[in-house]
């Protein structure tokens, strides 16, 4: 049964500070990162792979997987097949799969209060201060949480340098090179992967986004836990939620959810709804239609499963993670200029701190917006950062 409560548990408001100073990520020394990197790999990685990973991130533009838009389907498939040999995470390898699984089990072994996942399929140089803040907010709310960053570029020397400020402070974050054949093994998405590899399925122009859509479903099905997009800033502890997705919008008349979103997904290992998501992803894949295999897919499946007790999930209302809709997100980045705007900002800030578990920043819309001092985002940063200092969050 799908439960849409329409309300959230009460939560105390945090002290609101409307002023923020931002800091650039400080890179650690090469030698300290070699030590961290070597320790992370010593048990499960062969020397050749270790050396290859060291080089990843230094020339990681070559690892971009962005299909060209203005080509035919046949031309795009041809492009993908040429790219395929360089995408090591799509190839089946028993030894690599065992190593991947062992690293995850070891990482989540002891002392983790919450298993968290993020994905990153862009060059390391594009991992910006704002993405780093998302990780900070996670650990601010869950100091004993463990974050697995599934990425084809961050599991590298350059990636570890980016993550080092958190690692040095004792937070548990592990970048890991994905193994997609292992993750989708014995799921409906296994057939989809084979079709992609043999050139019978168009990857589409949104392949990277859909790769993230698939991996979040597969890793949650395989291990259970909490998935977050890198543009989700957590404001409160979410470990009390189970088998949960968030409503992005509701019908103003019926107050029933009208659109769900997968930027935050919390599920037990092996939950049957995840299997339905994987099946829908594989059967209806369309890599050229934005959102079709992401929020629209989640909405389609849950709508069909309503009133089925064997597929029970919890749907939290928009204020949980999507209080501010993407069409209005820029207002959170601007400093209020008059009394009306200040009152609106104070009201939204109060709602966020009282009612929301987190806030989705809609990076596709807000990614290049400058954070103005005195804005809502600047205040949230100061309340939910770990490395708080003087710099600009852009």
Radius of gyration: 21 Å
Question: Mind summarizing the main beta sheet?
Answer: 8 strands, mixed
What's the count of strands? 10
Strand content: 5-15%
> End-to-end span in angstroms?
41 Å
Shape: globular
Q: What is the share of helical residues?
A: 25-40%
Strand order of the largest sheet: 1-9-7-8-5-2-3-4
Task: Please state the average pLDDT score.
Answer: 85
Unreliable residue runs: 10-60
Number of helices: 14
Q: Secondary-structure element order, as H and E?
A: EHHHHEHEHEHHHEEEEHHEHEHH
Sheet/helix structural class: alpha/beta
Structure description:
It holds the Pfam family Gb3_synth. Residues 267-388 form the Alpha 1,4-glycosyltransferase domain. InterPro entries: A1-4-GlycosylTfrase_dom, GlycoTrfase_DXD_sugar-bd_CS, Nucleotide-diphossugar_trans, Put_A1-4-GlycosylTfrase_plant. Keywords: Membrane, Transmembrane, Transmembrane helix. With 394 residues, the chain is an alpha/beta fold. The chain has helices spanning 30-41, 47-55, 73-83, 94-107, 129-141, 157-168, 180-184, 189-197, 207-223, 272-283, 295-305, 339-355, 363-366, 376-383, and strands at 2-4, 115-120, 146-151, 172-176, 225-228, 232-234, 244-250, 257-267, 313-316, 358-360. It has one domain. Helix 1 (30-41) packs across helix 6 (157-168) and helix 10 crosses helix 11 (295-305). It is built from 14 helices and 10 strands. Residues 10-60 have low confidence and may be disordered.
């Amino acid at each position: 049964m799908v439960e849409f409560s329409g309300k959230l548990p009460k939560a105390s408001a945090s002290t609101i500070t409307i002023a923020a100073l931002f800091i650039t990520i400080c890179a650690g020394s090469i030698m300290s990162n070699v030590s961290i990197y070597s320790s992370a790999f010593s048990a499960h990685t062969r020397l050749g792979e270790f050396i290859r990973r060291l080089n990843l991130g230094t020339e990681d533009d070559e690892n971009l997987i962005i299909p060209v838009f203005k080509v035919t389907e046949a031309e795009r498939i041809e492009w993908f097949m040429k790219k395929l040999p360089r995408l090591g995470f799509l190839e089946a390898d028993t030894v690599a799969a065992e190593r991947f699984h062992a690293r995850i089990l070891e990482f989540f072994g002891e002392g983790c209060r919450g298993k968290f996942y993020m994905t990153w399929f862009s060059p390391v140089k594009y991992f910006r201060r704002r993405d780093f803040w998302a990780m900070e907010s996670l650990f601010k709310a869950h100091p004993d949480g463990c974050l697995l960053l599934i990425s084809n570029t961050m599991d590298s020397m350059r990636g570890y340098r980016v993550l080092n400020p958190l690692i040095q402070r004792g937070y548990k974050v592990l970048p890991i090179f994905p193994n997609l054949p292992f993750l989708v093994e014995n799921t409906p998405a296994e057939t989809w992967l084979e079709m992609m590899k043999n050139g019978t399925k168009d990857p589409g122009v949104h392949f990277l986004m859909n790769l993230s859509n698939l991996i979040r479903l597969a890793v949650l099905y395989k291990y259970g836990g909490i998935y977050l997009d890198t543009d989700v800033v957590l404001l409160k502890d979410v470990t009390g939620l189970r088998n949960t997705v968030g409503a992005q919008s509701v019908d103003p008349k019926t107050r029933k959810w009208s659109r769900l979103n997968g930027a935050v997904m919390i599920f037990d290992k092996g939950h049957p709804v995840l299997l339905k998501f994987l099946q829908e992803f594989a059967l209806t894949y369309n890599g050229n239609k934005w959102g079709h295999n992401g929020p629209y897919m989640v909405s389609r499946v849950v709508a069909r499963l309503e009133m089925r007790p064997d597929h029970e999930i919890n749907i939290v209302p928009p204020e949980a993670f999507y209080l501010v809709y993407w069409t209005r997100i820029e207002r959170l980045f601007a400093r209020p200029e008059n009394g009306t705007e200040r009152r609106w900002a104070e009201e939204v800030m109060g709602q966020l701190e009282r009612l929301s578990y987190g806030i989705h920043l809609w990076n596709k819309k807000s990614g290049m917006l400058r954070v103005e001092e005195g804005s809502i985002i600047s205040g949230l940063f100061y309340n939910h950062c770990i490395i708080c200092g003087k710099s600009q969050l852009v």
